[in-house]
Write a structure and sequence with these properties.
2 domains; disordered N terminus; Rossmann fold; seven-stranded mixed β-sheet; about 280 residues; 10 helices; alpha/beta
C-alpha cells in the first residue's frame, strides 16, 4: 500500500510542499526537471531543468495527437505548455490547492476538473493520456481500466515518473514496481512502444534538495530547538501543547524527505522512466 505523505503535508488547509515550491522557491513546476550534464547545482538551474522537462515531454508525444488528458496536472505547467502548442487539454487534479492555478484558464483553453482520476467521468475520449509523476497515486489496474475507457483506439499513454526496481521495503511510497507495472499494462492491451531511463537527468534535483536539507534545514531546526530549550522552556511546552499535531506531522514530513532526498539511495532502488504505451486498435 502506498504511503500517503500528502495527509501530513497539508496543515490546516495549507499544502506545505506547494507553498515552499511556489511561494518560497518561486518554482513554476512541482516535478523534478530534466538536467543536462555538468550543470551547477543552483535554484536557477532547477527552474531551467523544469522547463526542459516539459519540453522533453512534448517532444515525446507522437504525431497525430490532438487531445490530451493530463492526469495529476499539479499547478498546470505541463497543461499550459500543451495548450500553447495547440493541443486540446483536459486537466485533472484532486488537490483543492491546485484549482486556483486554472482560474479563468490563465490565458489558455484548458478544461480543469478538480477530482481524482479514479472517479473521472466524461463522454469524451482522448488521443493521449499524460501521467507526469502521478502514476503512483492510484492502483495500476484502476489506472489502466480508466485508460481503456478514455483512450481512442490507437491512442497513447505517456508516463514520466518514478518506479521501484523491485519489490522491497525501501521507497514504499513509490507504489509501482517497473516490471509489474509494464506487465499489467500489456495485460490491458497497451503495447510498450518507448522506454527511456532518465534517472541521471533528474538526480541533480535530488542532490540540490539534499544539500539544502543538510546545509540549511537541519542546522536551522537544531538551532531553533536549542534556543527554546535553553532560553524558553515554557514557550517550548506551550508550542507543543498548541501545535502538537502539526509538529508531529512536520516530523513525519522531515523523515520522509530525509530518505527521499538521498540521491545514492534513490538511484539504488528507483528508476525515473519515460514510458510510452499505445492502445491496440481493436480496443
Amino acid at each position: 500500500m502506498k504511503r500517503d505523505i500528502t495527509k501530513y503535508i497539508e496543515l490546516d488547509n495549507l499544502d506545505l510542499e506547494l507553498f515552499i515550491c511556489s511561494d518560497i522557491l518561486k518554482l513554476n513546476s512541482l516535478h523534478y526537471g530534466y538536467w543536462e550534464s555538468d550543470q551547477e547545482l543552483s535554484l536557477d538551474n532547477v527552474r531551467k531543468a523544469q522547463t526542459r522537462y516539459t519540453s522533453e515531454l512534448l517532444n515525446a508525444i507522437p504525431a497525430g495527437v490532438a487531445s490530451v488528458l493530463d492526469v495529476g496536472c499539479g499547478i498546470g505547467d505541463n497543461a499550459r505548455a500543451l495548450a500553447a502548442s495547440g493541443y486540446n487539454v483536459t486537466a485533472l487534479s484532486p488537490d483543492k490547492n491546485h484549482a486556483k492555478y486554472f482560474e479563468n484558464g490563465n490565458g489558455h483553453a484548458i478544461t480543469f476538473h478538480n477530482q481524482r482520476f479514479e472517479e473521472f467521468q466524461a463522454d469524451q475520449k482522448f488521443d493521449l493520456i499524460l501521467m507526469s509523476e502521478s502514476q503512483n497515486y492510484f492502483e495500476a489496474k484502476i489506472a489502466f481500466r480508466q485508460c481503456l475507457q478514455f483512450l481512442n483506439p490507437g491512442g497513447h499513454l505517456l508516463i514520466c515518473g518514478m518506479f521501484r526496481k523491485e519489490e522491497t521495503s525501501v521507497f514504499k511510497h513509490v507504489r509501482n514496481v517497473e516490471d509489474d507495472f509494464i506487465g499489467e499494462a500489456v495485460s490491458h492491451g497497451l503495447q510498450l512502444t518507448s522506454h527511456t531511463d532518465i534517472t541521471d537527468h533528474v538526480l541533480p534535483t535530488l542532490k540540490f534538495a539534499n544539500q539544502a536539507h543538510r546545509n540549511y534545514l537541519e542546522p536551522s531546526l537544531a538551532l531553533l530547538k536549542y534556543y527554546f530549550r535553553q532560553t524558553s522552556p515554557l514557550k517550548l511546552r506551550l508550542l507543543k501543547l498548541v501545535w502538537g499535531k502539526q509538529l508531529k506531522n512536520f516530523q513525519k514530513i522531515y523523515q520522509y524527505y530525509d530518505e527521499f532526498f538521498d540521491p545514492i539511495l534513490f538511484k539504488k532502488h528507483v528508476r525515473y522512466l519515460t514510458l510510452l504505451f499505445t492502445l491496440n486498435e481493436r480496443e
